[in-house]
Write a structure and sequence with these properties.
The protein is α+β, with helices and mostly antiparallel strands. The protein has helices at residues 2-124, 128-134, 139-258, and strands at residues 281-283, 286-289, 296-299, 302-305, 311-313, 318-325, 331-338, 341-348, 350-351, 358-359, 364-367, 378-385, 388-390. The longest helix has 123 residues, at 2-124.
Length: 397
């Protein structure tokens, strides 16, 4: 009997020691993967920030290019307007030139007639008007002829002055039109230079857009690659956590057998869990629209609204599997409760426990925060059965 008891004791010690050694090994692996996942997540966040900057730069450059193209369109419209104005001015200039030439010709006729009259007066004396007066048959006829001659001379003088005035007006209009035409040509030339400069600027900005877009695609490829690596790392971490849970379960079974207890592992949860914090459910378990944009997603837990720093309590007794940074969860605590049941607590501002530590129901394990991918202070609470999330609402009391 003594030998049997010794053998049983040695077997119990071996069962207890072996899982402890294994647990240390798995804990180290989990911690190493968790730290690596944190590094990857940090690098991924930096790359996402770089990608956002590249996207903003592409958007800004495209907006600038659109503005440049719009300016080119406005310049083209203005050039068309100036061309139409110049054509109209040229037509008016041609018509005024015709009028000016006609006025000049009429004025020349009057001037030539006046010159001939002056020459006749100089060579022969001004006898024409006197002959008209002397041929009068009576005094009243003389007076009438005198009035007619005076009116005729005045009319000739008015005609000459009118032609000269018309000539000055037409010449002034012609000068104004020529000045307008010169101004239109100068404006059109300036618009053409501006158009050429804008076209050059548009080409430069189009090249910058192409370069920035290539850079954006390159960074997007890096982000996709790092997201794949991060997902792979998280998958390995999940596998290690599941393996660790199985080992914790085996440890409990070994302790029960060593204590002479048979039957399934008994935990204090009994399928029900305590609320980890008091607060309002701000986002339930299940389908929802991604709060950071995009389509629908499956929300893996409950979001419970609470103030920054509010104490988080263990929902049931168990063993801490992981306590530290975990991707989008930020500071994350995962507790194994036995029978494949585990609970997770995300976005913590502080963590009060460490991996491998045993905790009791209601024990303080951390504080509410907004670490990781979070919209504000709250607790993301998960319940997992054999590694798969389930709705926590049905298990909370």
């Amino acid at each position: 009997m003594t030998l049997r008891r010794i053998a049983a004791t040695l077997l119990a010690v071996a069962l207890l020691c072996a899982p402890a050694l294994s647990r240390t090994s798995y804990d180290r692996q989990i911690e190493a993967h968790r730290q690596h996942a944190q590094q990857l997540q940090s690098q991924l966040n930096a790359k996402r920030h770089e990608l956002h900057g590249a996207q903003v730069r592409v958007g800004n450059l495209k907006a600038q290019l659109s503005q440049t193209n719009a300016a080119i369109g406005s310049v083209n419209v203005r050039l068309d307007e100036l061309s139409a104005q110049q054509h109209s001015t040229e037509k008016r200039l041609a018509w005024n030139t015709i009028q000016l030439n006609a006025a000049k010709a009429t004025l020349k006729l009057h001037s030539d007639a006046l010159k001939r009259r002056l020459v006749d007066i100089y060579q022969h004396g001004d006898l024409g008007y006197i002959d008209v007066l002397l041929s009068a048959t009576s005094f009243s006829d003389f007076v009438e002829r005198w009035d007619d001659l005076r009116l005729l001379i005045a009319a000739n003088q008015r005609a000459i002055r009118a032609r000269r005035t018309a000539e000055k007006k037409v010449a002034s209009a012609e000068q104004e039109l020529e000045a307008t035409q010169a101004a239109l040509q100068a404006s059109a030339e300036a618009q053409r230079r501006a158009k050429n400069q804008l076209a050059t600027l548009a080409d430069e900005r189009a090249n910058l857009v192409a370069i920035a877009d290539d850079q954006r695609r390159h960074v997007a490829g890096q982000v996709a690659e790092m997201e794949s690596l991060s997902s792979g790392e998280e998958a390995q971490l999940e596998a290690l956590i599941l393996a660790r849970q199985r080992e914790i379960e085996a440890e409990r079974l070994a302790r029960q057998r060593a204590a002479g207890i048979t039957g399934p592992v008994v935990t204090d949860s009994g399928g029900s869990l305590s609320w980890p914090v008091s607060g309002t459910i701000t986002s339930p378990y299940g389908p929802r629209r991604n709060p950071f944009g995009g389509g629908m997603e499956i929300h893996q837990g409950l979001d419970i609204g609470a103030s920054m720093g509010t104490t988080i309590s263990a929902a049931a007794a168990g063993t801490i599997i992981s306590a530290g940074w975990y991707g989008g969860y930020g500071n994350f605590i995962l507790i194994d409760h036995g029978n494949g049941l585990s609970t997770g607590y995300g976005h913590c501002s502080q963590i009060f426990v460490s991996a491998g530590q045993e905790v009791q129901r209601g024990q303080a394990i951390g504080a509410v925060g907004s670490t990781g991918v979070s919209t504000g202070p709250h607790l993301h609470f998960e319940v997992r059965v054999n590694g798969k999330t389930v709705d926590p609402a049905s298990r909370l009391r």
